[in-house]
Every structure is written in structure tokens, then in C-alpha cells.
Design a protein that fits this description.
The protein is α/β, with parallel strands linked by helices. The chain contains 13 helices and 6 strands. It comes from Streptomyces tropicalis.
Length: about 290
């Protein structure tokens, strides 16, 4: 049951809201007297379920230290709403688990990383109530590892910089160092890293470079990415063979093949369409007619 003294200590500010500016003055902090006051509902319960998810949440136990809750967020761009969400996560985790929370933000571009690393204060400037200071890993502070010997020391630690430096001019050397080490790594350990790096490259140009390195340097692996690359390679070989057959038939029949038509046939990767063209090449009178009923 709430005591009368508890009620009095906060109710006085409802009855005399201008009192805050005078109390703050006594405490050595200046707040301007309010020109108007609105009494708001005191119930802070969420009116409806609101889904909030942190990207990764880990409990870290270390000998001689209190357990730590580590929330990891991947941040792709600046978002003014994020600091408030991160502060909510920290408060919620502390309330739910009664363990100290820590926030690590991982970024792939320097501008976002430097933005995320700035301390954010909540509350009036005269007396900030909270300060949010996430730990940030990004291209501004992750090492550029191009030496296989360095990557070999800690493969997991080398993987994160490879992902965060996806736009670095040295990304080719970074990824080559990774495949060099992965060649010596047991497949059970290498496969997840191959896939993680592939995911981390996203739609950046480095993604295609990684796929080529995996296809050449790690061709003996049977990871999902390796199998996908080999399947693509087989399909490309079949398409190339079909295109050569079409051009051979057209040339043997004396059909003129303009450069544009030759390019169109040679670069086509659709096996069904190539089979259709090959069938028509046996009877067509021109390349225009060959392409008429695609």
C-alpha cells in the first residue's frame, strides 16, 4: 500500500507544478518557470503489445565478473529514432534480467559508424538524465587484415573486419587472405564462415568477387555457396555449348550472323530458349526469323 508520505512527495508537483523551477534553482540548476502545464496520464503500461526485437542477445558469463547481457545491433544507415530504441532495450533488459546490459553496434560504412558511436543524452541540457554510449565496430576501427598469417590467428575476428570493410579498396586482398586460411580449415568450421561472408557482402560488388574466390580457391568444399556456384558453372557450360551449336548450324547452312545476333546468342543463359533457337536454326532463313517466336 502506498504511504501518505509517498503521495505527498510527488502530489505537491501536481498541485503546484511551478514549484519545479524553484526547487531546481535551490539545487543549483536553472529551469525557466512554465507558462502552461498539462497533467498527463501516469500509467506507462504499453496500451497494446508492441514488438521490439534486438538483432542478437547474448548472456556472457566470465570468471570473477558479473554476468553481462550483450545486445548486438547491425545498423545499415543513420536512423534518428534508433538511439531512443536502444535506450529502451537497455532499460528493458536491465529490468527483465537484472543484469547489466551492453550494446554493440556493427556498421559497414564509416559515416554510420561514427554517427552510432556518438554519445546521446536524454533529458534537458541543464541536467541530462541518461547518456547512451554504444560500443561500435565498423570500418573506422576494425583492422584491415590482408595477411593470411594474421587472419589465421583468429578466423572469427578476421571474418568481422572482412564484412565491415566490404567497400574498402583492399577488399580483394582481405577476401583472398580469408580463402587462403579457409583452405587449411576443417570444413565443419569453414562452411559457416563462407556463408557468413557471403551474406555480409550483400549486394556490394565484393559479393561477386567472394563468389569467384570461393569457386576457385575452395572448389573442394561442399558448402551451400560452393554447391550453388558449381551448379551455376554447370548451367553456364551447358548454355555456352548450346550457343556454339546454334552458331555452328547457322554457319553451315550459310545463314549470315550479324555481330548483334552473335552476341545475343552467345550471352544467353536461358537453356530452354537456346534449345528453341537451336531447333529453329535447322529451318530458319535469317537470324531475324530465328528470334521471331521467342
Amino acid at each position: 500500500m502506498v504511504s501518505s508520505s509517498h503521495e505527498a512527495m510527488h502530489r505537491i508537483f501536481q498541485d503546484h507544478p511551478e514549484l519545479f523551477s524553484r526547487v531546481s534553482e535551490v539545487l543549483g540548476i536553472e529551469f525557466a518557470p512554465p507558462t502552461s502545464v498539462t497533467v498527463l496520464p501516469t500509467d506507462l503500461t504499453e496500451p497494446r503489445p508492441l514488438e521490439r526485437r534486438v538483432d542478437t542477445l547474448l548472456r556472457l558469463d566470465s570468471e570473477g565478473f558479473e554476468p553481462l547481457l550483450l545486445a548486438v545491433e547491425a545498423q545499415g544507415k543513420k536512423d534518428p529514432a534508433k538511439p531512443a530504441s536502444w535506450a529502451y532495450y537497455a532499460s528493458y533488459l536491465l529490468t527483465k534480467y537484472r543484469l547489466q546490459p551492453m550494446l554493440l553496434v556493427v556498421c559497414q560504412d564509416r559515416a554510420t559508424a561514427e554517427w552510432a558511436a556518438r554519445p546521446v543524452t536524454f533529458g534537458p541540457p541543464q541536467w541530462p538524465l541518461l547518456t547512451l554510449r554504444p560500443l561500435v565496430a565498423g570500418p573506422h576501427n576494425m583492422p584491415v587484415i590482408t595477411d593470411p598469417a594474421e587472419a589465421r590467428k583468429d578466423l572469427a575476428l578476421a571474418t568481422l573486419p572482412a564484412i565491415t570493410h566490404v567497400t574498402d579498396p583492399d577488399i580483394g586482398a582481405i577476401l583472398k587472405a580469408m580463402t587462403t586460411v579457409l583452405r587449411e580449415t576443417p570444413q565443419a568450421l569453414a562452411d559457416p564462415i563462407i556463408e557468413l561472408v557471403a551474406q555480409g557482402m550483400g549486394k556490394h560488388p565484393a559479393a561477386e568477387l567472394w563468389r569467384k574466390l570461393v569457386a576457385v580457391d575452395l572448389s573442394f568444399y561442399k558448402s551451400p555457396l560452393s554447391q550453388e556456384l558449381r551448379a551455376e558453372g554447370r548451367a553456364e557450360d551447358k548454355a555456352e555449348s548450346k550457343a556454339e551449336d546454334i552458331l555452328f548450324v547457322l554457319e553451315r547452312r550459310g545463314i549470315d550472323v550479324p555481330d548483334e545476333a552473335r552476341e545475343r546468342i552467345s550471352t544467353c543463359g536461358d537453356l530452354d530458349l537456346l534449345r528453341h533457337w537451336l531447333d529453329r536454326a535447322l529451318t530458319t532463313t535469317s537470324t531475324d526469323d530465328l528470334f521471331t517466336t521467342e
